[in-house]
Protein backbone atom coordinates (compact mmCIF):
# COMPACT_ATOMS: atom_id res chain seq x y z
CA UNK A 1 0.00 0.00 0.00
CA UNK A 2 1.24 3.50 -0.87
CA UNK A 3 -0.23 6.63 0.66
CA UNK A 4 0.52 10.34 0.34
CA UNK A 5 1.01 11.02 4.06
CA UNK A 6 4.65 11.50 5.03
CA UNK A 7 4.31 11.00 8.77
CA UNK A 8 4.00 7.27 9.36
CA UNK A 9 5.01 5.98 12.79
CA UNK A 10 5.24 2.29 13.61
CA UNK A 11 4.10 1.20 17.06
CA UNK A 12 2.06 -1.18 19.18
CA UNK A 13 -1.40 -0.73 20.62
CA UNK A 14 -0.93 0.08 24.32
CA UNK A 15 -4.61 0.49 25.21
CA UNK A 16 -8.07 0.88 23.71
CA UNK A 17 -10.80 2.79 25.54
CA UNK A 18 -14.18 2.34 23.85
CA UNK A 19 -16.91 4.94 24.13
CA UNK A 20 -20.45 4.94 22.75
CA UNK A 21 -19.33 5.50 19.14
CA UNK A 22 -15.61 6.36 19.29
CA UNK A 23 -12.57 4.59 20.70
CA UNK A 24 -9.34 6.18 21.93
CA UNK A 25 -6.48 4.01 20.75
CA UNK A 26 -3.17 4.62 22.53
CA UNK A 27 -0.14 3.68 20.42
CA UNK A 28 3.32 3.21 21.92
CA UNK A 29 5.81 4.44 19.30
CA UNK A 30 8.87 3.84 21.50
CA UNK A 31 11.16 6.07 23.48
CA UNK A 32 8.43 6.67 26.04
CA UNK A 33 6.18 8.37 23.45
CA UNK A 34 2.49 7.47 23.25
CA UNK A 35 0.10 8.73 20.55
CA UNK A 36 -3.66 8.71 21.01
CA UNK A 37 -5.96 8.32 18.01
CA UNK A 38 -9.73 8.77 18.15
CA UNK A 39 -11.36 6.41 15.68
CA UNK A 40 -14.79 4.85 15.33
CA UNK A 41 -15.62 1.63 17.13
CA UNK A 42 -16.38 0.18 13.70
CA UNK A 43 -12.80 0.94 12.58
CA UNK A 44 -11.43 -0.79 15.69
CA UNK A 45 -13.45 -3.89 14.80
CA UNK A 46 -12.57 -3.78 11.08
CA UNK A 47 -8.85 -3.55 11.90
CA UNK A 48 -9.19 -6.21 14.62
CA UNK A 49 -7.26 -3.94 16.97
CA UNK A 50 -6.21 -5.31 20.34
CA UNK A 51 -3.56 -4.53 22.93
CA UNK A 52 -0.09 -5.51 21.71
CA UNK A 53 -0.98 -5.53 17.99
CA UNK A 54 1.56 -3.84 15.73
CA UNK A 55 0.07 -0.85 13.89
CA UNK A 56 1.02 2.30 12.02
CA UNK A 57 -0.04 5.79 13.05
CA UNK A 58 -0.53 7.77 9.85
CA UNK A 59 -0.62 11.52 10.41
CA UNK A 60 -1.75 13.93 7.74
CA UNK A 61 -2.76 17.37 8.91
CA UNK A 62 -3.45 20.59 7.08
CA UNK A 63 -2.82 22.71 10.18
CA UNK A 64 -0.36 22.66 13.04
CA UNK A 65 -1.13 24.68 16.16
CA UNK A 66 1.59 25.99 18.46
CA UNK A 67 1.02 26.94 22.09
CA UNK A 68 3.01 28.26 25.01
CA UNK A 69 2.60 28.29 28.81
TrEMBL record:
Gene Ontology BP terms: molybdate ion transport
Name the record gives this protein: Transporter
Keyword Metal-binding appears in the UniProt entry: no
Lineage: Bacteria, Pseudomonadati, Pseudomonadota, Alphaproteobacteria, Hyphomicrobiales
InterPro entries: Mo/tungstate-bd_C_term_dom (IPR008995), Mop_domain (IPR004606), Transp-assoc_OB_typ1 (IPR005116)
Span of domain Mop: 2-68
NCBIfam families listed in its UniProt record: Mop (TIGR00638)
Keywords, sorted A to Z: Molybdenum
Record has Lipid metabolism as a keyword: no
Pfam families attached to this UniProt entry: TOBE (PF03459)
Organism from which the protein derives: Mesorhizobium hawassense
